[in-house]
Amino acid sequence: MKLTFLGTGTSQGVPMIGCDCVVCRSPDPRNKRFRTSALVEETGFTVLIDASPDLRSQSLRAGLKKIDAILFTHGHSDHILGIDDLRRFNWIQNQRLPAYGSRATLERIRTLFPYAVENNGAVHPYTRLDLHEVRESFQLGPFEITPFALPHGRMDTTGYFFRRGGKPLLAYFTDCKEVPVQTRSAVRGVPLLILDALRFTAHPTHLTISESLAIAREVGAGRTFFVHFTHDIDHDAHSKDLPERVAFAYDELAIEI
């Protein structure tokens, strides 16, 4: 299995518009961050996690030619406004794309993209999604996926736990203020943990670096990668302060399990 980070930045991306800070002016490509999303690939089956507003550029950069399914973590704009760019995959594959998410997330998609979810069987000419509500574990290609509700201010996002043949592979937890105790227990020792880590200072709806480090220690994953972080994080400088087996992800980084 391979996970590729298509984007690792916050809703505004990095560099931020109009900002002249050291990170936004940095020549280090690891400090240039599209909005957070990822690809999970296994034996020719490709899952996209979230459709960010940067999806077109992300797809071109990654050489992406096929998507078998989309997992949506929640309905905020930086995670769904790339839905229109999915139309190209409808054309290439000549099929509607299955998309999964919570009831609230799917309702948001229906509201903003009614033409994409019309139940008329058509594939062209616009994006066409077949929506599937997730409430319990389900099979998706080679993966057994368990959804977990993660507090994100006044709403919950959906974290996804991937297994294959009963063996844990990946826990993907972005955009959250907490990972509940039961969820930490369920994914303890997972080979790969992807975790929200916005910045160093407190935020009402996102984990801070120190909060994420505490969760990473408790989960004890083989490797933990932080995502969805701001221009407060200089990849080279701040990576030196992280413990072993914990790292800041960066765009285009590919991890194999």
Key terms for this structure?
seven-stranded mixed beta sheet; Metallo-beta-lactamase, Chain A; alpha/beta; 257 residues
Explained architecture:
This protein is α/β, with parallel strands linked by helices. It has one domain: 4-Layer Sandwich (Metallo-beta-lactamase, Chain A), CATH 3.60.15. Helices cover 20% and strands 30% of the residues. It has helices at 55-62, 77-80, 87-93, 103-112, 181-186, 209-219, 235-239, and strands at residues 2-7, 37-42, 45-49, 69-71, 97-101, 129-133, 138-140, 143-152, 155-164, 167-173, 192-196, 223-227, 246-248, 254-256. The protein has a seven-stranded mixed sheet with strand order 6-5-4-3-2-1-14. The model has no long low-confidence stretch (mean pLDDT 97).
What percentage of amino acids are in beta strands?
25-35%
End-to-end separation in angstroms reads 5 Å
| Helical amount | 10-25%
SSE order, one letter for each helix or strand: EEEHEHHEHEEEEEHEHEHEE
Q: What fold name goes in the CATH topology slot?
A: Metallo-beta-lactamase, Chain A
Number of helices: 7
Major sheet: 7 strands, mixed
Q: CATH class, please? A: Alpha Beta
Strand order of the largest sheet: 6-5-4-3-2-1-14
CATH architecture: 4-Layer Sandwich
Stretches where pLDDT is under 50 for at least 5 consecutive residues are none
Q: Count up the domains.
A: 1
Q: Output mean pLDDT.
A: 97
- Give the CATH superfamily: Ribonuclease Z/Hydroxyacylglutathione hydrolase-like
What does the overall shape look like? Answer: globular
Structural class by SSE content: alpha/beta
Radius of gyration: 17 Å
The count of β-strands is 14
